[in-house]
Amino acid sequence: MPRYTTAVAHELGRDEALARLKAVTAHARTVSDLQGNWEAGTLAFSVTAQGLRIVARITVEEDRLTFDGTLPLIAMPFRSWIPRVLKKSLQMQPGQAGPEPAPADVEASPLTAPAVLFLHIPKAGGQTLGEIVYAQTRGETESESDVLKAGVAYLTYGFLKERPLAVPAYALPLLRRPDLRAVIGHFWFGLHEHVARPAVYVTALRDPVERVLSLYYYTRLHDSISLDEFIADPPFREVDNDQTRRIAGADPEIGECTPAMLDAAKENLRRFAVAGTIERLDEMLPLLRRRLGWQRPADCCPRNVNPDRPAASALPPATIAAIRKRNELDFELWRYASQLMDEA
Question: Which fold has domain 115-343?
């Protein structure tokens, strides 16, 4: 795996910087699979973020932090986030990031509305919907020391799925919280089995041509392989019928998704409180309000739009045909989701 080294300057002094990093590390153990130990001023650790494994060392010096580690090749385009994370970690006060003890009486009265599980399919344009779910379900108060954000759990795994499909052990205590109001993340059908409270699913599917094109440019692989190569020989399974995979709760090898999986995904979609398409988000909102009893104002502006990627309409017909062939089941599931909206 490629090696990556970077440094972040600070003016805190070694002792204060070390105290802040240790507090952040303690907090990270409660929300990720972070493993590692501090020895003097150096943390040797490993962690998985969205399916990408990182092995590295962080050394705290008087005026800087040094990161030295190995990243999967697919993660190299995203390496610029590492200095940003280090800088943000140094902004935390030691008391802010400690793990929250198990709540004994977080809710004076039990929650009556079910927890909302927003199954956010990667690159399906769901960031706006995620923000709406948070705004509608969040509690009135928020503690900076709590791993839940106003009662909402943001899961940090699943953009690229690991095998076998399983909820990481560190996420299970969050899902069992009695004050859980919503879960937002790139997970797959089956999460409800680990949620202690009654729960309902919400999702939005996207035109597979648009989704695959967005995935290609988001991962910045256009710097190393062509779009046609990306489709013909996918570097990861998420290029191949990933919407059907997630809704069905299955993840076979590339090219091995079956009509039976599509049938399972359709059956699961019928069990969702609301399942629609991102192209019809403005129509999903009144449906969400009616079925989930949401009352708060909602902002429906597009988020996370990449202005540098070409429009799908500009692709050669052969490329569009290749994406459609690679994602035949996703096309059928996307159309079915739109049909469910028509019926609703």
Answer: Rossmann fold (3.40.50)
